[in-house]
Amino acid sequence: MSSPTTDSDHEAVLDDIFETLAELAPEIRASLPGRRTKSTETNPSGETQMEADAYADELLEEALGAIDGVGFYASEEQAEPLDHGEGVTVALDPLDGSSNLKPNSPMGTIIAVYEGELPAGGDELLASGFVLFGPIMTMSVARNGTLTEYMVENGESEVITESVQLPEEPTVYGMGGRAPDWTPGFSAFIDEVEDEYKLRYGGSMVADVNQVLTYGGIFSYPALQSSPNGKLRLEFEGIPMAYIIECAGGASSDGTQSILDVEATEVHQRVPVHLGNEQLIDRVEAHLVDE
Ligand SMILES: O=P(O)(O)OC[C@H]1O[C@](O)(COP(=O)(O)O)[C@@H](O)[C@@H]1O
Ligand SMILES: [Mg+2]
Ligand SMILES: [Mg+2]
């Protein structure tokens, strides 16, 4: 697992960042009911923004940008990182799974903290985490090789599980994209695993990956014939969630290598994503090797 060692200055600003995120989580969740409509804007990836995406982005930029030691605020909703002085770069998916707003299904917020400016690879990642707006509100934080899960119902962080580890035995699988658009290798992999595990796919990466963290298995948003780099964004979804899974004893892949080793060349670069138990990542890579 490649990521820089953090020093005491980094530890202090990381504490501030995750405390701020925990405090803000209830406000983000409370902002959802009145913002379930599509805005007239599209994000830098060309996707229609929900009102809630834009509002969560505003709240997060204001709160995180004000932290001493945060130099840039970047998000999937902002064309370019926004300058907030000197320090680390916070990179966010303010609302992940926003298409789940309408059907009132789980969604969340993803954060990555990079040492330097974007584009940044996994070797510059200091920490990452996500907030999950489910039946209860949780925040999972990956720092110094360890994943910790907190309850953040009242804006306080109360540890639920220290050193979260993927179960040895996989149970669930979930994958994005449409079957006719999958590559032959990925289709062959799905043909295999559908006989072995339970399908769990809910359309929000945060919620679907948390299923894998809880029950063991694999989450994929693969390379598609129509989109060879898949759908998910390297800086805001791929790298932070890959670090989280690898801290929990799992593995990540873009189809050939750990997502933490993918070269970052653009702020909004997309990446194929496979996350989960090591033996399943090995199997999906074996099916994709000739593609
Ligand atoms: O609707 P699809 O094609 O299954 O895509 C679902 C994927 O897209 C996403 O919703 C993209 O994230 P955003 O909602 O932040 O744009 C992921 O959370 C999820 O894994
Ligand atoms: Mg997302
Ligand atoms: Mg989003």
From TrEMBL:
Its main location: cytoplasm. Residues 166-287 form the Fructose-1-6-bisphosphatase class 1 C-terminal domain. PANTHER family: FRUCTOSE-1,6-BISPHOSPHATASE-RELATED (PTHR11556), SEDOHEPTULOSE-1,7-BISPHOSPHATASE, CHLOROPLASTIC (PTHR11556:SF35). The lineage of its organism: Archaea, Methanobacteriati, Methanobacteriota, Stenosarchaea group, Halobacteria. Binds 2 magnesium ions per subunit. This is Fructose-1,6-bisphosphatase class 1. Belongs to the FBPase class 1 family. It comes from Halohasta litchfieldiae. The gene is fbp. GO terms for cellular component: cytoplasm.
